[in-house]
């Protein structure tokens, strides 16, 4: 009965109340907002009109047309606001068609009828909409599971984009990594996590071609949250079937306690006559590089030339700061020891003194015992063979052996002594 009365009132002209100037002005404002495309304002104004007067076919038609403009079926997925528009639109369309069924067919009826027909392809009620959302979620966001049933990964479709949001999980449910993909290719900003939830790495993947690789500044972290490395990748290549990201610029690494571990600089990749090729580590160290112990003490200091070869000073230290090794790199081919190289025992005593030619060949050779006394001395030829006079000593400094080498073998007369300097034997080789 109430609905019949409503429908009768719906198509009555505005009575004396409806003819109120304010009511008419509100309706004109609604029409003006509709013509300008401001459909939300239309609905607000129609609410004000119907608060002062009974709804009419004109107000209902204007409401349906506005709701139809606001409703977007492409955005219905998991969107309660759009579902609310759908539900309201469907109810108003049914009311209008039922009330106008016995009146003369006109363009407005045809339009509303077609809107109703279009709505039939959408879920008929909230239960159907919720079920459709689940089905759409499975289609748009495919999931992968561990044998245990725990979620392993989920791919989330991004509307209007050729990328998808991707998340992977550890079996304990903790997020493992997240970012965007094009197919199987990682692109844009990514984050990787440790199994305890701490951030493991973050940076950007290159999206400028068929391959993907790390590009720009990347940070790596320990599972306690402290920074492990800060690096910069300049380019990406595909060689020998392997994608490589090449380090460029400042490099820093730290121990888990936050103490600086290593610092230096990388240069661009090496190009060869056979195309683009790379040194063994795919990166090229240049300039000064330093490595430290966990207590902050300098561990090694070394210098590299512009081609990535050892060049210049090299020093290494024991953890207490005592020098362990010192020398120079150089030579025609680079990365060769030249001049005198000294190594030390942890007590500070000299362990060896090795001299190299300008071409990196061994020359003078002296070895020492921990107490500082000489152990062995001699020379090498350009083929790295022992050559000429050689002497070997006991720890107390007494001569132990003496003789000559030729082409790396003992040759001629050799004499052997005990710890007191007494001759034990002689032999001729």
UniProtKB/TrEMBL annotation:
Signal peptide: 1-18
Keywords: Signal
Pfam family, one: MORN_2
InterPro entries: MORN_2
Keyword presence, Signal: yes
Signal found in the keyword field: yes
Entry-linked Gene3D superfamilies: 3.90.930.1
PANTHER family on file: MORN VARIANT REPEAT PROTEIN (PTHR33706), TPR REPEAT PROTEIN (PTHR33706:SF1)
Protein name (Swiss-Prot/TrEMBL): Toxin-antitoxin system YwqK family antitoxin
The species this protein was found in: Flagellimonas halotolerans
